[in-house]
Task: structure prediction
Amino acid sequence: MKRHIILLIQLLIFSLVFSYCSAQIIPDPTQKQVKFFFPGAKLADDYVYNFPVQFKEVGIKTNDSTLLSALLFKSDSSKGVILYLHGNTGSLAQWGNISKVYTGLHYDLLMVDYRGYGKSDGFIKSETQLYSDMQAAYDYLKTLYSEDKIIVLGYSIGTGPAAYLAANNHPKELILQAPYYSLPDAMHHLRPGFDTAKIAFHFNTWQYLQKTTARIVIFHGDEDKMFYYGSSLKLQAFFKPGDELITLKGAGHPFMDRNEDYLVGLGRVLR
Result:
């Protein structure tokens, strides 16, 4: 029941975006849409995280000196590190609970809260700014790990920025969970005929995959009601030899890290 409620909330958020934009009365469409696509989830600066694995809080400074909040989870015997770009709901207080999935496979894990989320300062203003922020997180990891030990992983809304990072750097691997072909494409699928002319974010995942030299692995549920499974089928057109789409039969959009087929596939990919 809880899963269905969360999915309904996510669908409602996107529905509000469509309805609001379709009215064509947006004085500043970029900022209005930012609040819908990235509603934020702030935490008090003195909030104390509590997770059953070893971690430390990290502050990452962006190119405009904004401080992003991040958590670096440590594995007992690390084979590398995963940079995890989460979805648009919740903060690290929630997302950190999945850390043991990855540390249990002997990878360290860096999770970053976007501006306006958790303890991160500021607020998201544009797609370009978001890319720059995530590049700062990637650059931070390069001070701790060789680049061939870095895996970029994005979930849901985070898949576009993750693909951008992979296209503009040289990580070991790119893993996408429930990606979209592009955000306009996803919106057209949810509401056919919707005019995306004023959309604030494009997140053209398909373009970034063409520039990615690292291995690409996509996990997608074939019953996803948010970012439709056909998105990943279309993204396959840009695969190189060795890239892979792993279909999660009967799976929807949320809670991928609890899906047994995902866990088995992830273990194979990261072994």
About this structure: The chain has one domain: 2-269. Confidence is low (pLDDT under 50) at residues 1-9, 11-29. Residues 2-269 form a domain with the Rossmann fold fold (CATH 3.40.50.1820).
